[in-house]
Each structure stands twice: as structure tokens, then as C-alpha cells.
From TrEMBL:
InterPro entries reported in the protein's UniProt record: DUF1501 (IPR010869), TAT_signal (IPR006311), TAT_signal_bac_arc (IPR019546)
UniProt-listed PANTHER family: BLL7424 PROTEIN, DUF1501 DOMAIN-CONTAINING PROTEIN
Sorted UniProt keywords: Signal
PROSITE patterns per UniProt: TAT
Pfam families reported for this sequence: DUF1501
Name recorded for this polypeptide: Uncharacterized protein (DUF1501 family)
NCBIfam families cross-referenced by the UniProt entry: TAT_signal_seq (TIGR01409)
Signal peptide: 1-31
Amino acid sequence: MMQDQSRRAFLKRSALLGLAGTATPFVSSLAAIGEAAAATASDYKALVCVFLYGGNDYANTLVPYDEGSFAAYRTARANIGYQRDVLAGTVLNPTVALPDGRAYALSPSMPEMSQLFAAGKMAVALNVGTLVEPTTKSQYQRRTVQLPPKLFSHNDQQSFFQASSPEGAGSGWGGRIGDVFQNGNGNAALTCINTSGNAVYLTGRNAIQYSVGTGGPIALLNSSRTLYGSSTALDTLRALMTTETGLAMANEHARISKRSLDIQAQLSSALAGAPATNFPLFPSNNTLADQLKMVARMIAVNQTLGLKRQVFFVSMGGFDLHDNLVAQHPGLLAKISSAMKAFYDTTAAMGVANQVTSFTASDFGRTLQSNDDGSDHGWGGMHFIVGGAVRGQRFYGKAPIVGTNTNDDVGQGRLIPTMSVDQYAATLASWFGIDSGGLRTVLPNIGNYDSSTWNQGFMG
């Protein structure tokens, strides 16, 4: 079951943002939409966050393959680690070799991602995680640096990855990117699009996420043509919902309702020109693929809707594998691999691969050391960036020492991140068109890092 943002965080954000902030098709207030745009764009670009709820197990996703590292990997997880011979088909051969002969292979369940890497369309970001400032093991142990609050907690680390703040955050960095560009779009309400419910990642200070289902916009009034069999009754209800009465709250509700009905109709009409049958590359029985197909359909109609910049959020759950990792994890990874490859291939067929970048994210990594037949909550993890503009077939960041209680972990193979989420996000945001001044607004902790490290180099 998906590890969603907690009910407490949801209620806090709902209280802050009002009706428009919940996971509904309602959109932001007139005041928010009317604010001056901070940036404009002449081309189209899309960022797609693929969030893996529960904390993905990094060591069985990107497996140490050089002999020394693999031996340490097997020692730490003799009962849940892969055998080396099954990894031969997914060994990653980078254009720039890692130091000290280090090597990695993807899980055997991810052949499609291996193909993307070999084609130069995927990069690997090593040891990414939540930080407030650069942190070493000594600093962590002596508590001489500021640390993300409530490390190893699902709710808080999901929020910190998405928002640079713990549970209850009011905005996320995807939404704050949306703030910068929303008024350059033909319809500001379609800047931040969520296909999987509610996530703080897409909530801006002004921008509000617009939720869609895998079949299209979430329908107000269930797209009914009648009410209790009467078209007159339905017309009356619509009029009651959208007519201003002179009372401030009622007027705002009416404006939001009218705008939401109008946007629903506009988006439904546009998507009719990009039916799901036109997107045959996506696998069936794969909820992530279904969400990414919806994203592809929306990208296909960006010109119809007058859109220049969009930020999307899709997600999968089931990664909190304290047990049954061997039985369940490969199937989850297979769905990621096939869905993300289908999405890339679809953007290539549409001629927009260079304009669309997808990337993975998760609460945290997990322990290298096994916990019977699973792994426990960790910290840093490995992530993938896919797209035509990606400087692919390369590893970025520092490959951690494989083992437990090394200088790179705080026990049991819980990696101390060496690439912060802020640096990971700044690299993506810079490609998207955010300047250095804007990065400080989008990512409030980025100023804690030397500016030469803000861009990690994996985007062209």
C-alpha cells in the first residue's frame, strides 16, 4: 500500500491553502493566479518526479559489481543479495569510469533501464539524500551540523525530500518551480499536475497542484448531464455553484467552481485529441505506466493549451520492505523499469525527448545490512534521471564504500548522503530555466553549499 503523506500533514496543508489545496480538481485563488510571473519561456519543458513511497532499497536496485564491493555486499546481505552471475546482463558500462575500479549493475529486473543507460539517455546519481548542509560522519556523530529533523521517519523524510521541510510543510520545490513559471503558461492552473493524489512536492506558495486521474481530469459533478434525471436540475445546481452572491466567501467559491468546471472542460476537450489508444508503448497492469501515459497525453496537448512549463508528479508505493524483499522488490523494480522506458520511448516518438526529464525520488534509502529477509529505514540512496537532455551513460556523485559502519554510513549501511536533495533538485531546476537567484527561493537550503556544486552536471 502506498506510503502517503500523513493525515496530519494533509490537514495542515489543507488549512493553509483552503479548498484549492486538497487533492481535488479545484484550482488556486484569483489572487494567486493573478500574481506577476517571475519568468517566461519560449520553448516547452516538463519535469516528471517519480516518487517511490516507502524508501527504496538502494543496494538491490543498483548493485555493487566490482569484486571487492560485491564481496562486502554479499557479506552484509547474504540472505537477500543477488548472486553475481545473474547481474551480468545489467552491468552498467559508463563512458567515464568510476575511481578505483568501482562498478555497478542494475537489478536483473531492470533491463529496460540498462538499455536507457547504454543509449546515453539515463544517468545515475549516487548517494542522494536529505541534508540541511554538507555532513560528514564525524559531524553527524558530534552533532556539529544541522540535520534533517526526524531522520528515518517516513512522513518527515518524504516531506523533507519533496519540500526541504518536515511533515506539515506548506510548499514543495516542484510547486515553487511552478510559482516561477505559472503565469507564462496559457493556463496557470495546469502548471503543476499530480496523477496520484496529493503531494507537498507540487504545492507552491502560489501554484496549486491540479489533480488528474489516469483517464483524465477528475470530473466535478461526475460529468453528469442530468441530476436525478433532470437537465434543468443540473443547470440549476451549476448556476448555484458558479453565481456570485455578494458575500466574499461565497463569491470566491463561485469563482473557483466556475474556473474548475471551465478547466475540466478545456482539458477534456484537448485530451480528446490525444486518446490513450495513441500511446501503445506502455505496459498493461502497471499503475506507474498508467500514470506516465496520462502525463504523456498531457504533454502531447501542451500547444493546444498554451503551456510552456509543466511539473508532474507520479508515484508508486510498496517499498517499505522490512521483510519479503526478495519476493516483492524485483517486481516493483520491473514496473519502474518498463514504465520509465515506455515513457522515454513515447516522448522520443513525439519528438519531445529533449524537452522532458523524468527522475526518481524516495523517502530514503535503506540499510545495506539485511534485517532477516528485508532491510530497515536508511538515509542516502541511488536515483535515476532519464531524458534526451540528460548527460547519460555516466555516474554522478561519489560512490560510497560498501559495508557497514564505514566512513560513509552511520551504521548498518545507512548512507550519509554526499549529494543533497537540494543539489539534485538544483541541477534539474537549472535545466528547467531557474536562474541562480531563483534557486535560492526554490531551494532554501542551497546557499549552505558552495555554488560550484549546485549543478551536479547530469543535465545538458
